[in-house]
Design a protein that fits this description.
Rossmann fold; 278 residues; alpha/beta; Non-heme chloroperoxidase; 8 strands; 10 helices; AB_hydrolase_1
Length: 278
Amino acid sequence: MSTVTTTDNVEIYFKDWGPKDARPIVFHHGWPLSSDEWDAQILYFLSKGYRVVAHDRRGHGRSAQVDHGHDMDHYAADAFAVTEALDLKNAVHIGHSTGGGEVARYVARHGQPAGRVAKAVLVAAVPPLMMKTDANPEGLPRDVFDGFRQALAASRAQFFRDVPAGPFYGFNRDGVKMQEGVVQNWWRQGMMGGANAHFDGIKAFSETDQTEDLQAISVPTLVMHGEDDQIVPIVASAYKAVKLLQNGSLKTYPGLSHGMLTVNADILNADLLAFIES
């Protein structure tokens, strides 16, 4: 497997496909998945002649199941280790959900200062802050995330079945047909990772305030969000994020779910390509 070793000695698995002299697109996956989450986008952009790169976050997928560093700072630093090892320049970084938080921190603290990033996309992303606070009343109450932790600790395998079969893809909505293969693939990706990484990751994606990250980003940034996202509330994320960005634009999708990049890939891919080539 292709891996890079971080400064704290963690092996990070990555894919690097397509012409090495083509413009790179770097994909950052959501919790608790892996780079396989981006299959539909990776195949699409390969067909368009791009170089596509995607890594598994530490503790997720095929990366090392370590007991430390499951926080946004390490997530971003690990992504930087991959981009440095591959010497990626003029790259477009695209992140989904927790991966969107990873992109925001990577671009603000690593990508822009190193001159390696040209554009960014936040898809159903967690920034600026998911959890409800006095300053963020639109967020979700802490007990929601405590419930995630309790369900994961009680039976990770069952929890990782219930999430995709229900709210993640909107399969719990009337008239929406269940796609069993999609549910099983979500479960497969989740169960490849480490339980501790997934448990600690709940704090990372729910409690990390990324207001300053968003404010620091100056490259063109597209914020994409489904209006029926049951996982990351659009009012606490996308609507706020685009106002904090220096050069941001917002595109919302009526009726689409948190997992729209998979079940509505045809729509998302076309819009991603239009932004990248604009």
